[in-house]
Specification:
Bound molecules: cytidine-5'-monophosphate
Helix content: 25-40%
Strand content: 25-35%
Oligomer: single chain
Largest sheet: 7 strands, mixed
Distance between the termini: 24 Å
Order of helices and strands: EEEHEHHHEEEHHHEHHEEHE
Number of helices: 10
Number of strands: 11
Shape: globular
Structural class: alpha+beta
Length: 297
């Protein structure tokens, strides 16, 4: 049996460059792994079934769930390597869900990546990180980042080409995160980005390299103005709650604020653990909203 944390991510920079012929989008992004996490328990089975249970009843427990898809993909990989006669290993997966669904923090992608890493251990497959990252890329654009096992990374392609940022290894940022009580489907946001007139598309004022350099300070005030997300105005237009969440954080006097991924999670970089936790106990005016305090891991 293996019990593993499955961390969430936020994007500190997300520049959508163009739509590709396969429908995906080329982007340049900076991922940060944060302490908000689901917990996965993996158990070997005597048979070769993949059985998923989850604390959130709204999640499907069949192959539509990326955690199951990850285990099936690994089984197919074993079969390819060992031949059709191979006795396939099975597993039971239990997910304690905390990362809100469809929030822009990649909970599902993280679960899938944790299953790949965990089953590689439990099934004693001995696959290296590069091979696991290739498999992860087939499951979702955000998955390879979680397999890479770093706190910060620069990503390109559709988000699956990962360059870890080891010079930021010691940096620990604190975040107050608001998740408006809505579930935002990522494809809808990218389609809306496609429909934006080119002239209206916001462009970053600073390059991603300037942000990566500013991150070295670890100080929210020095990082804030370099945060960027092409998708924030697109999501905010469709879901006004995103603008309300930003305004709520601004009204608390916070300055380094950004929406993560395709939203709707909006976070502020805050001073230290104490300040972050104090903000999380502030009353949020909409009861459907969730507030989290999380730091880099
Ligand atoms: O890769 P993943 O399956 O997580 O992506 C979900 C959806 O998000 C895709 O089907 C696509 O509509 C959109 N997407 C995109 N460009 C990316 C990443 C995701 O258009 N780079």
């Amino acid at each position: 049996m293996l019990t593993l944390p499955s961390y969430a991510k936020v994007n500190l920079f997300l520049h959508v460059l163009r739509r590709r012929s396969d429908g995906y989008h080329c982007l340049k992004t900076v991922f940060e792994r944060i302490s908000l996490h689901d917990t996965l328990t993996l158990r070997l089975r005597r048979d070769s079934r993949i059985v998923l249970t989850c604390t959130d009843p709204s999640l499907p427990c069949d192959e539509r769930n990326l955690a199951v898809a990850a285990a099936l993909l690994l089984q197919a990989h074993v079969r390819r390597r060992q031949g059709k006669a191979a006795a396939l290993p099975g597993c039971s997966i239990h997910i304690v869900k905390r990362i809100p669904l469809g929030s822009g923090m990649a909970g599902g992608s993280s679960n899938a990546s944790t299953v790949l890493l965990g089953l590689n251990q439990l099934w004693k497959l001995g696959l290296g990180r590069p091979e696991l990252m290739k498999l992860a890329a087939r499951l979702g654009s955000d998955c390879p980042f979680f397999v890479a096992g770093c706190s910060f990374a620069l990503a390109s392609g559709r988000g699956e080409k990962i360059k870890p940022l080891p010079h930021l290894d010691r940096i620990r940022l604190w975040h107050s995160i608001i998740i408006p009580g809505i579930n935002v489907p990522t494809p809808r946001i990218f389609r809306a980005w496609d429909r934006q007139p080119r002239i209206k598309l916001t462009k970053p004022l600073f390059s991603v390299n300037i942000l990566c350099s500013a991150l070295k300070s670890g100080r929210p005030a020095d990082i804030g103005r370099y945060l960027f997300n092409s998708l924030e105005p697109v999501t905010a237009k469709l879901y006004p709650q995103v603008r309300l969440a930003r305004r709520y954080l601004e009204d608390l006097g916070l300055k380094s604020i950004l929406m993560s991924g395709s939203g709707p999670a909006v976070y502020a970089l805050v001073g230290a653990g104490k300040e972050a936790r104090a903000l999380c106990t502030e009353r949020v005016f909409d009861r459907s909203w969730k507030v989290f305090c999380a730091r880099t891991v």
